[in-house]
Amino acid sequence: MTAPVIPTIRPARPEDVPAVVAMVHDLAEYERAPEQCHLTTDQLAAALFGSAPALFGHVAVDQHDEPIGFALWFLNFSTWAGVHGIYLEDLYVRPAARGTGAGRLLLATLADICVRRGYRRLEWSMLDWNPAAGFYASIGAEQVTEWVPYRLSGDALRELADHATTAGTRPDH
């Protein structure tokens, strides 16, 4: 009997983009919302490797350097702590690679970045029915119950943006 191969974690490379996009679509399917996922390889490549990237990524790879999981993240900022943190947008490990430690290693990599850079938080959200809650609790993550997420999108986003235009306060960003 051979020992299971422990995945390797490394920063995402341009050649990983198609595999990561495919896994994002797999994640959307898993989260019962494939019709809401419109990510393309061009979009992800620009976000990760364009002239001013604000998105970062790591991949878990197998012994053949093939991506089997990923973490996509960006910096946030805590005004109370006065320092940045990491917001984990997506974490996914292909079903065949679950149980290899890839998810834990991806999170450990982000935790290491936080510690080395002096960031105080590694945060993420998950659907309330996701069975990963047990895994997250096992690594010491705590559910934040006093904060309720909000989202502004679609028509409501456009209507509020129109208010900035009509009030003459359009930002120059």
Automatic annotation (TrEMBL):
Cross-referenced InterPro entries? Acyl_CoA_acyltransferase, Diverse_Substrate_AcTransf, GNAT_dom
Q: Which residues form the N-acetyltransferase domain?
A: 7-164
At the top level of its lineage, which domain of life is listed?
Bacteria
Q: Which UniProt keywords apply?
A: Acyltransferase, Transferase
- Pfam families assigned: Acetyltransf_1
State the name under which the record lists this protein.
GNAT family N-acetyltransferase
Species this protein is from:
Micromonospora tarensis
High-level lineage: Bacteria, Bacillati, Actinomycetota, Actinomycetes, Micromonosporales
